[in-house]
Amino acid sequence: MISVKNLTKKFDSFCALENVTCNIQKGCIYGMVGSNGAGKSTFLRILSGVYKPDGGEALLDGEPIYENPSAKAKIAYVPDELFYLAGATMERMATMYRSIYPGFEYDRFRKLATDLGLDTRKSLNT
Hints:
Elements: E1 2-11, E2 14-24, H1 40-47, E3 55-60, E4 63-64, H2 69-72, H3 90-100, H4 106-115
């Protein structure tokens, strides 16, 4: 279960989230609707452990998410804007992921890249 209590996040003088409280039961699917700047992406980034809340708490199965590798291992977040290291290749990103995520399957990465005919040495920008 995801449990959020009095969650607050500010960026300088802009308050993106203020005292948000909710519980999301295991197996439930929710959608978020709101205008630009309403805090949807900020909320998801806190739930995935990308951002640290300025106030309140975000818990996954009773554990804090931020700076908690065991909680983060249970979460997948795909942002609308993907991040790559400058000049990154698939090979370089795979090496980084392998060093960060204990469950990263490097051999599976290599097989899928080969099966799909992808050049893992090409810049991701191309």
